[in-house]
């Protein structure tokens, strides 16, 4: 990338980097900025340390918050991705996710679909090693290449469906407006987000990593 930036000045790019690696190599962030990196996508997945441990993410809630600051100090936008709906999600925990994003001023940086994603349990998923997953999934569905599952608290599944409808609405509005609608549905205590002078860079196609929706649920990787 150093060579490319020298030979083709003005070329920009994005990178996908784990939270733990951003912490380990924080000294390299200015180099990313100087060679044309506009934003970094990182699979944060959750702000619940217990869930992060089950998903073997290698980072904590505090690590995520620290990386947000490091990227901002380096002049880089962080585009976090999430899997907010899992068998361990609670209504209160989902509201906490929204409140955390608002507190970190990430409302504009999170693609709305990331607030609606439901955990996908595939045939070879290491998640099946966990008893609560293995014993809680339904029969394997070859059409979706996954094991369907329902949350023990029906309110969580209802919330996920409602959030998906908000995100999928053709009249959903700006990211801040979508976030506000989701926060209202979830009962999250967040202040109304104000638009930044310069919106963060992001992919124009946000509907990625999704599976064909079934009649009663939508599963995402």
Task: Explain what the structure shows.
With 221 residues, this protein is mainly α. It has 9 helices and 3 strands. It has a 3-stranded parallel β-sheet with strand order 1-2-3. The chain is globular.
**Percentage of residues in helical conformation:** 25-40%
Cα Rg = 18 Å
CATH C-level name:
Alpha Beta
CATH topology annotation = pyruvate-formate lyase- activating enzyme
Give the overall shape. globular
* Number of DSSP-assigned strands: 3
Main sheet characteristics: 3 strands, parallel
How many distinct helices?
A: 9
Strand content: 5-15%
Q: How would you state the average pLDDT, rounded?
A: 89
Strand arrangement in the largest pleated sheet: 1-2-3
Q: List the secondary-structure elements in sequence, H or E.
A: HEHHEHHEHHHH
Q: Can you tell me the CATH architecture?
A: Alpha-Beta Horseshoe
How many structural domains does the protein architecture include? 1
Low-confidence stretches: 209-221
Task: Give the CA-CA distance, first to last residue.
Answer: 30 Å
Going by helix content, strand content and strand pairing, the class is: mainly alpha
């Amino acid at each position: 990338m150093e060579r490319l930036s020298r030979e083709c000045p003005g070329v920009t790019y994005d990178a996908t980097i784990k939270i733990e690696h951003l912490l380990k190599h924080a000294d390299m962030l200015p180099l990313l900025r100087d060679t044309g990196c506009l934003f970094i996508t990182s699979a944060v997945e959750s702000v619940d340390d217990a869930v992060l441990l089950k998903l073997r993410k290698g980072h904590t809630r505090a690590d995520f918050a620290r990386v947000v600051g490091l990227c901002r100090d380096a002049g880089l936008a962080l585009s976090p991705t999430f899997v907010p709906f899992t068998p361990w999600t609670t209504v209160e925990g989902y509201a906490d996710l929204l409140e955390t994003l608002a507190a970190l001023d990430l409302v504009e940086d999170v693609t709305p679909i990331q607030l609606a994603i439901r955990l996908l349990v595939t045939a070879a998923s290491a998640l099946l090693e966990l008893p609560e997953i293995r014993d809680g999934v339904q029969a394997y569905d070859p059409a979706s290449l996954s094991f369907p599952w329902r949350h023990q608290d029906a309110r969580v599944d209802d919330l996920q469906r409602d959030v998906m409808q908000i995100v999928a609405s053709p009249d959903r509005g700006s990211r801040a407006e979508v976030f506000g609608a989701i926060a209202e549905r979830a009962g999250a205590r967040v202040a109304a987000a104000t638009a930044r002078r310069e919106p963060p860079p992001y992919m124009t196609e946000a509907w990625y990593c999704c599976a064909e929706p079934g009649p009663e649920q939508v599963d995402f990787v």
